[in-house]
């Protein structure tokens, strides 16, 4: 296959790139600048002509992807992961525009200039699925499925909280893509993948813990850059998937006939802060003094925790998920290495 991959330098994107290349696919990685292309090349040095690059400095500008979607041999697959996911303060439009316009631009360019593309896979999120504003009672043990959408409106997206803007960016990007396909009837089918938190070791190189992607930096700050007697961090969104499993989900979404046109929740399980602390303190001696202790074995998950259901992806894509130990212990060991190298 010949695949166009956006966000190839990111946390999720670089794992997808790794899988695509090692399976023998030919990939054009889309990044924002030449220096980012060089970084990706230094992380994937051995693939020769199997890996090439397209630079798109502003994914929201009209026709932004017109040139990079053209290729000989032609593309048959597009995977779009690029989208801002950050806690640092950016404006609402800085979330919404790259997500929504960035999605539409790649779909328009693909339709107009790359008719050989048969499938576009979009990395969405459970942020587009879960109703975070619901009173606890109505989320009580709720199990979210592919039929659910968050209730965000344009008005609520623009009231100035980052969470709102992010949740809206993922919902409206996904809906815009579905609307585009319905109205424009391009040659390609769409597949969207909706993970909750994505954690796990990074495949791309980062120079310091300050450069970590958002979700892993949360684990670093709360569980590693801390102390045994610190308060146990709040659970936050306690559903997650390992980034390596999530990358495999993209490959299956790009290749399985069963995936065509579908929306899939990709969730490996639930985990509480106590559960993360216990795993790290048990498996990594150095963390016994660094990771908040809480109460060993207690409070694994609140009684009323909602969940996300991956049964559809397990059935249609044959997805399986690795253990909590593998995800969090592998990640924490790597975070300690990065911390040490600073
Ligand atoms: P990273 O920050 O590691 O990667 C984000 C990627 O998107 C980078 O390649 C980045 O490029 C690119 N990007 C961000 N903003 C823009 C922009 N304005 N214009 C062009 N490119 C941009 O994050 P993740 O790998 O975690 O996220 C990848 C995808 O996964 C996103 O769509 C995110 O919504 C989704 N996701 C992630 C979750 C998680 O827990 N990590 C959970 C649910 C969904 P650059 O380096 O140039 O900024």
TrEMBL record:
Question: What is the top-level taxon of the source organism?
Answer: Eukaryota
Keywords, comma-separated and alphabetical: Oxidoreductase
Q: Does the keyword Oxidoreductase apply?
A: yes
Q: Which SUPFAM superfamilies match?
A: NAD(P)-binding Rossmann-fold domains
The answer to whether UniProt assigns keyword Nucleotide-binding to this entry is: no
Give the GO molecular function terms.
oxidoreductase activity, acting on the CH-OH group of donors, NAD or NADP as acceptor
Q: Which Pfam families match?
A: Epimerase
Q: Where is the NAD-dependent epimerase/dehydratase domain?
A: 3-259
Say which family it is in: Belongs to the NAD(P)-dependent epimerase/dehydratase family. Dihydroflavonol-4-reductase subfamily.
**Mind telling me what this protein is named?**
Methylglyoxal reductase (NADPH-dependent) gre2
- Species of origin: Physocladia obscura
In the UniProt record, the gene name given for this protein reads GRE2_1
């Amino acid at each position: 296959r010949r695949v166009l991959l956006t966000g190839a330098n990111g946390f999720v994107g670089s794992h997808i790139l790794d899988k695509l290349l090692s399976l023998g696919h030919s990939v054009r990685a889309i990044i924002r600048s030449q220096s980012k292309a060089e970084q990706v090349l230094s992380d994937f040095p051995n693939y020769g002509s199997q890996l090439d690059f397209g630079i798109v400095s502003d994914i929201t500008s009209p026709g932004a992807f017109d040139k990079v979607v053209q290729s000989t041999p032609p593309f048959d697959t597009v995977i779009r992961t690029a989208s801002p996911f950050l806690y640092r303060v950016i404006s609402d439009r800085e979330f919404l525009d790259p997500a929504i316009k960035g999605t539409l631009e790649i779909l328009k360019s693909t339709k107009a200039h790359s008719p050989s593309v048969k499938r576009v896979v979009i990395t969405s999120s459970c942020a587009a699925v879960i109703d975070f504003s619901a009173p606890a009672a109505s989320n009580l043990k709720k199990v979210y499925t592919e039929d659910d959408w968050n209730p965000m409106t344009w008005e609520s997206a623009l009231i100035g909280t980052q969470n709102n803007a992010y949740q809206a960016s993922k919902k409206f990007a996904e809906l815009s893509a579905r609307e585009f396909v319905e109205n424009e009837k391009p040659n390609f089918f769409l597949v969207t993948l909706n993970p909750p938190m994505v954690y796990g070791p990074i495949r791309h190189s980062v120079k310091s813990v300050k450069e970590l992607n958002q979700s892993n930096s949360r684990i670093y700050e709360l569980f590693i850059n801390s102390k045994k007697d610190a308060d146990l961090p709040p659970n936050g969104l306690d559903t997650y998937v390992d980034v390596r499993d999530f990358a495999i989900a993209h490959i299956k979404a790009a290749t399985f006939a069963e995936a065509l046109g579908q929306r899939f929740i990709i969730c490996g399980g639930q985990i509480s802060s106590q559960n993360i602390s216990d795993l790290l303190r048990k498996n990594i001696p150095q963390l016994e003094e660094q990771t908040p202790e809480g109460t060993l074995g207690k409070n694994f998950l609140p009684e009323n925790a909602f969940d996300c259901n991956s049964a559809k992806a397990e059935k249609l894509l044959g997805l399986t998920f690795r253990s909590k130990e593998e995800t969090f212990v592998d990640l924490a060991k790597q975070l300690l290495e990065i911390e040490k190298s600073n």
